[in-house]
Design goal:
Radius of gyration: 22 Å
Strand order of the largest sheet: 1-4-5-8
Shape: globular
Distance between the termini: 35 Å
Number of helices: 11
Oligomer: single chain
Order of helices and strands: HHHHHHEEEEEEEEHEEHHHH
Largest sheet: 4 strands, mixed
Strand content: 15-25%
């Protein structure tokens, strides 16, 4: 990170041909140094040594956006690789997982739809109808991240609209060159269009035909597989956010000690001291809460409440700490001469993707109140 990634952030952020060539050279260096794909075990093609070890790595990797891609553990490919490893057939692993983990191809996860609430995947409208030995897929997706230039999609589609709500959808592997799959456009996010991996695309599926054998896991298991993907994934997101928080905190403290205004350093102003104290407390609390959830998941607990708590709490802390750091930097903080501007842009999305704050608060409140209704009360342990 210190030697190869931070010094190249400016060049990489241009996302031109030279930037992509630079990123590829750094990816090859990561492979050569045994740091590639730490999210998966060696038998799957990665270098991972377990869930907790990877959680700690993400705290460092998350300090800059492109590092996850350089180390071969980027969303959405990491999550796709993990569910292919757990639920894929031998043929699916050979055709899609092996080159994906090797970094030879990219993928995208196609679930969110513009016409329905992304926070409730049981309302999806994309349909996959069985005709003989094929699925015929019709639907409209967006925020299919990384779709531009990807080799395949994992598509969430309703396969049985009459089934119970959480058993209606299946996940289906769709090669990107299948007739009827159209990448309409990369959706600009805060003015950023992106290129390749950094895009968030609108995708149309019109009469897309793939073999039934492309079903990932069981028919009707789409929601369950998505939950298996999202739970641990939220831990990794939050650990990366912790890296962002800590980096913003370091920049804020350094700037406060260096900058003078009205006859004294910013570090001597009570308001700035309050921002630093609040940020230190919130980052520390967020880190301990996240590691608590990670340890519980590693022990086999789903930790649904703990994961929801850190998802909305960490998203708020992330935004607040970066905002304070920008304020201490003044005009410099909103320019591309500092990493804070791009960090701030990315941070706002944290309160929406992988479930908006409001849904996670609802999950927590319902679980706590249910425990009280049963007479058990809530135990903080």
């Amino acid at each position: 990170m210190e030697e190869h990634i931070y010094p190249n952030e400016g060049a990489i952020s241009r996302e031109d041909d030279a930037a992509l060539a630079l990123v590829e050279s750094l990816r090859q260096r990561a492979k050569a140094e045994g740091l590639w794909a730490p999210n998966l075990p060696p038998e799957a093609g990665g270098t991972g040594t377990g869930f907790l070890a990877y959680a700690y790595l993400n705290e460092e990797i998350g300090r800059t956006t492109w590092a996850q891609y350089i180390f071969g553990c980027q969303a959405p490919d990491a999550g796709n690789a993990e569910i292919l490893w757990e639920f894929g057939t031998d043929e699916q692993k050979a055709r899609w997982l092996a080159p994906l983990v090797a970094g030879e191809i990219r993928s995208f996860f196609s679930m969110t739809e513009p016409e329905v609430s992304g926070s409730d995947p049981t309302t999806l409208r994309t349909r996959a109808v069985r005709q003989g030995g094929e699925w015929v897929i019709d639907g409209h997706k967006w925020f299919s991240s990384g779709a531009e230039g990807a080799a395949f999609a994992i598509v969430m589609a309703v396969t049985d609209p009459e089934a119970p709500r959480h058993a209606r959808a299946s996940q289906i592997i769709v090669p990107a060159d299948t007739p009827g799959l159209e990448i309409v456009r990369p959706v600009p996010v805060f003015g950023h269009v992106g290129r390749g991996w950094s895009t968030h695309c609108e995708v149309l599926y019109t009469g897309v035909r793939v073999p039934i054998e492309n079903t990932l896991g069981d028919v009707g298991a789409g929601f369950r597989i998505a939950q298996k993907r999202l739970g641990p994934g939220r831990i990794h997101h939050v650990m990366r956010w912790l890296g962002q928080m800590q980096r913003a905190f370091e920049l804020m403290c350094t700037r406060a000690l260096e900058r003078e205004a009205f006859g004294s350093r910013l570090a001597d102003k009570q308001t700035v001291q309050n921002w630093i104290a609040d940020s230190a407390a919130e980052i520390h609390a967020c880190r301990l809460m996240t590691l608590d959830a990670a340890h519980k998941i590693d022990a086999g607990d789903e930790a649904r409440v703990e994961v929801s708590v850190i998802k909305f709490y960490a998203a708020r802390v992330l935004n607040d700490v970066i905002d304070r750091a920008i304020q201490v930097h003044g005009a410099l903080g909103i320019t591309n001469d500092s990493p804070l501007a791009s960090m701030y842009m990315m941070a706002r999305g944290a309160r929406i993707y992988d479930g908006p704050d409001e849904v996670h608060r609802m999950v927590v409140a319902r679980r706590v109140l249910k425990a009280f209704e049963s007479g058990d009360g809530w135990q903080f342990k």
